[in-house]
Amino acid sequence: MKLTDNVLRSFRVAKVFRENSDKINCFDFSSNGETVISSSDDDSIVLYDCQEGKPKRTLYSKKYGVDLIRYTHAANTVVYSSNKIDDTIRYLSLHDNKYIRYFPGHNKRVVALSMSPVDDTFISGSLDKTIRLWDLRSPNCQGLMHLQGKPVCSFDPEGLIFAAGVNSEMVKLYDLRSFDKGPFATFKLQYERTCEWTGLKFSNDGKLILVSTNGGTLRVLDAFKGAILHSFGGYNNSKGVVLEASFTPDSQFAMIGSEDGKIHVWNAESGLKVALLDGKHTGPVTCLQFNPKFMTFASACSNMAFWLPTIDD
């Protein structure tokens, strides 16, 4: 089944899970699309089975809190940042609920975490104005970049380069093998006083970069030239909430939630809005991602919703 405008417009909430007492701050699908794991401000980690459509397990990180949870490539392991005591990144085995390793180094809150799509490398960005490069097999930082402001960062789909959004006005592209030589490309965008960048993602075909903000604007950039191809607005975000935006796996559509619980979808090529979906969320849709393998997506406030299409175009 192929994603089309009509199929996207037909999506409806199939299941709602009320496992959390506070907002879900992050979730991540496994690469095979079979499970999704969430982190919440209530200090819990909830693992869901996407095929059966039900929660499987709940773990807690009460001492440190939990945010920015990401699957690694090994089955049943995740990395996540702390939102309580310290700014150490933790590597957890879900199998026995034990920490495998800690990654100390940042001295302010970690605001970005991206796992390499191909190996055990990951990058983190922090309010301490640094991006750190890590390897899951070593607690020592493998690389450090000092920046001029708060960073957002992400790997490209090949895992060869990563992009850093700096100070809400610049995108710098680094080659992973020679990042210490500095960025090989820098795109300067017009600085916006009204909002900060909160996220950066590549499309799966590697051609586009999606920059989300804590305002009412979402941007699609050409990943090679840095030109702004589209600016999407018209969704509610008056309180400066961090709303996750995502591409669909086919790179054809971009989507974002809003503070009124609705989900907006645009065609990434034409820039036209194709759908406005009502998830009946009780709060802002802070997390939104399409399943990498199956025709379903998930959205979250303090509740988690699984969506399915109601037509097969």
Automatic annotation (TrEMBL):
SMART domains: WD40 (SM00320). Keywords: Nucleus, Repeat, Transcription, Transcription regulation, Transcription termination, WD repeat. The keyword Transcription applies. It holds the Pfam family WD40. GO terms for biological process: DNA-templated transcription termination; lncRNA catabolic process; negative regulation of DNA-templated transcription, elongation; negative regulation of lncRNA transcription; nuclear RNA surveillance. GO terms for cellular component: Set1C/COMPASS complex. CDD domains: WD40. It comes from the Eukaryota. SUPFAM superfamilies: WD40 repeat-like (SSF50978). WD repeats lie at residues 17-58, 103-138, 235-276. GO terms for molecular function: chromatin binding. The keyword DNA damage does not apply. Belongs to the WD repeat SWD2 family. This is WD repeat-containing protein 82. The lineage of its organism: Eukaryota, Metazoa, Chordata, Craniata, Vertebrata.
